[in-house]
Known about the structure:
alpha/beta; eight-stranded parallel beta barrel; signal; nine-stranded mixed β-sheet; glycosidase; 22 strands
Amino acid sequence: xxxxxxxxxxxxxxxxxxxxxxxxxxxxxxxxxxxxxxxxxxxxxxxxxxxxxxxxxxxxxxxxxxxxxxxxxxxxxxxxxxxxxxxxxxxxxxxxxxxxxxxxxxxxxxxxxxxxxxxxxxxxxxxxxxxxxxxxxxxxxxxxxxxxxxxxxxxxxxxxxxxxxxxxxxxxxxxxxxxxxxxxxxxxxxxxxxxxxxxxxxxxxxxxxxxxxxxxxxxxxxxxxxxxxxxxxxxxxxxxxxxxxxxxxxxxxxxxxxxxxxxxxxxxxxxxxxxxxxxxxxxxxxxxxxxxxxxxxxxxxxxxxxxxxxxxxxxxxxxxxxxxxxxxxxxxxxxxxxxxxxxxxxxxxxxxxxxxxxxxxxxxxxxxxxxxxxxxxxxxxxxxxxxxxxxxxxxxxxxxxxxxxxxxxxxxxxxxxxxxxxxxxxxxxxxxxxxxxxxxxxxxxxxxxxxxxxxxxxxxxxxxxxxxxxxxxxxxxxxxxxxxxxxxxxxxxxxxxxxxxxxxxxxxxxxxxxxxxxxxxx
Length: 522
């Protein structure tokens, strides 16, 4: 009955609902979960863009819910005063600003490429449009692994010829040439935004490492600054120059994916170990000067690991070798183990190093041993994404990057058996792909909070619950205020929003187990 009244409320108060969008083709796999949206070579749902008509009278909201809404657009009238019965009261304070945003996106791993390019050309186009085009969720960030990772079908690097210190045998792989590069080029063609590429490496060639293996406990051979470290820096430059030959220029790189992994005995997939001290010295003695010499204009991010290492990792990098500060631009974090440490560590890190941005570079659900890899239609996983993104953004993080852009129905392929979930799952036998609720969770941020948006203060009074979360931004270019609200509880929540400067109010309801993006103009 609650859903009936919610639909009636929206019909009465909305100027329009569906517009020109193609709706989700729903498929329910398990009644315990929500729906997936099915796309193929002839059909794929789309998302309506924000419109610019009568913005003084109407605001726009996009809703995703466990009951089946997927980025559904509603155009609503402003109210002249707040509702006295609202459970949650939010006040927009546009004059109080925080960090600027880089964007949102995901990683084109080998496994993503493998799955995507086993679809028909028409289905591939629909998938790329879903992620990057104006009718999709408009990602503007792509993470590009440097050679093989666990989400590859094999172990490899770009130069597995022992003792090739001059890297004469260096070459991009089939995975780059047939999957990753064509995918990025296609994304660039359909995107209305400027896409930012950043790179991360998992393992150096085994012959450069102390354990002579792609995985396990291993570091580069010899002292930092020595020939193995220099060859590793040269290897990075070769990678970037090789991609430049295809017209692809990178915005940034991380100094190493999860540098702590390579210090763990019997670690099960591609890794290379660094400590904060060796990472600092590698950047100062090898990587930083080499990138500067190559005139690549790249931003360097340290850590690229769990936030539980903050602020200590950054403190140790910059105290051990203060010269690292002139090369390092940012600090990269992953979402794994976030529950073990409060987001306050991000604030502490920002306060200590306000000139170094913090950027979230990896997240996914269902690490080995922590539940099923793939759960078709899981809304809880979508809520976890929204919760983590809002939490990060409220603590100085400048963007958020998902892990694999597309996996198969088992959560792979993965040569190490480390299967996980993904916002898009590919069923190559039926030439279709399934959009999980996580896909729409990402879209609530990526489509509406463009690069350059600035977080603003959002004061909250009334109902306080760990099931509720909210964040606000302003986009000065389009004169928009953007809010994202989450309700993880099983009860509807009424709220009022007060835009102090305009004197306009929004009185509405946040459905149980739902999230929404609200766009208003100023």
